[in-house]
Write a structure and sequence with these properties.
By secondary structure, this protein is α/β, with parallel strands linked by helices. The protein has helices at residues 45-48, 134-141, 148-151, 160-163, 186-195, 233-244, 254-262, 303-312, 314-326, and strands at residues 27-32, 38-41, 54-58, 60-62, 66-71, 74-85, 88-94, 104-108, 111-118, 124-127, 171-174, 198-204, 227-231, 249-252, 273-277, 292-296, 337-341. The strands form 3 sheets. A 9-stranded mixed sheet has the order 2-1-17-16-14-3-12-13-15. The chain has a 6-stranded antiparallel sheet with strand order 5-6-7-10-9-8. A two-stranded parallel ribbon has the order 4-11. A hairpin with a 5-residue loop joins β1 and β2. The two termini are 21 Å apart. Its EC number is 2.4.99.17.
Length: 342
Amino acid sequence: MRVDLFDFELPPEHIALRPAKPRDSARLLGVGREGVFRDLSVRDLPSLLEPGDVLVFNDTRVIPAQLEGTRGEARIGATLHKRVDLRRWQAFVRNAKRLGEGNVIEFGAGVTGIAETRHADGSWTLMFPGDEPVEVLLERAGRMPLPPYIAGKRPTDEQDRTDYQTMFASKDGAVAAPTAALHFTPELIEALAGRGVKSETLTLHVGAGTFLPVKADDTTDHAMHAEWGRIDAETADRLNAVRAGGNRVIAVGTTSLRLLESATGADGVIRPFEGDTAIFITPGYKFRAIDGLMTNFHLPKSTLFMLVSALMGLERMQAAYGHAIANGYRFYSYGDSSLLLP
C-alpha cells in the first residue's frame, strides 16, 4: 500500500510532553468498527470489559540507553536499540561519519565504547569493555531515551526515569516504553480484578526502530527492525484457555500485540516464543491472537498507525484520529489512549 495513505495533519500542541497525573486520569477514546466514538477516561476501563477477559501487558523495563560522548574532538551520540550479547549493543549513532572500526568513544563517568562493526542501515555494534554489567554502566552514564518528538522540545530530566516506566517494568532491555501501559496504576488493576478481568505479562524489548519514519513510498519496501521477545508456555496456555472459553484477549500496546501475533499459528493457537520478531502488520493482515487493543495515538505514516488501521480499517482510524484532534486528545508516548474493539 502507498505510505501516504497513512498521513494526517497533527497540530504540534497536541503532542504531550508530560504524562497525565495521576496516570489513570488520562482520556480514553472508545472505538468500535462502526457507530459513535466514545469519549471516556482510562478509569472507565473496568466497565468496558467483561469478566473473563484478559489484558496482556509488556513487562519490559526501559534502560537509560541514550549516550553522549566524544571521539577526540568529535561529539558522538549513541542510542542503543538491540542487545547483541552481554557486552555488545547495536546502536544508532549521531555523527557516525566521524567513526571508524576500532575507534573508542568516551561517554564519561568512566564508561567507554568501542565501535566494532558498521551495518548496512548505518547503525554500529558498540562493545563496552570492563567487568561491570553494561546495565550498570548505562545507569551511570546514560539518559532515558525519550522519543525525538519529546526530546526535541525539552531536555530529559530525572522525573522521566519514573514517568517513562510502566508499573509492570521488571525485565531490563527496552529503549522505548510500551506506552499504553503507562496509564495503569495499582488501583486500576485492583478495580479490573474486582470486575473479573485477568492480567497476563509477556516481554518484548522495544527498540529505537519503533520511532524510525517509513521512508519508502510503498509498505512492501519497508524493512522492520527486529526486537527480542518471549512468551512462556504457561502464559500461552492460559491465553489459549481464555479464548477457548469465549472471552477476549486484549493487548495493552502494539508491542504486546506484535509479539502475540508472532507467537500464534494459522490455527489461532498461541505458542511459547523466544527470539526476534520483525512482524510488520498492515491492512489486509488477518489477526490470529487478539480480540482488541488498548493503545496511544501514533505518528503519521508510522508502522503503528498502519497496524491500528489493519485492526479497525483505515477510514475508521482516520475518522477516529480526526475526532481525537478536534476534541483535544493528547498524542504519542505521554498522551491519551484508545480502546479498539473490532
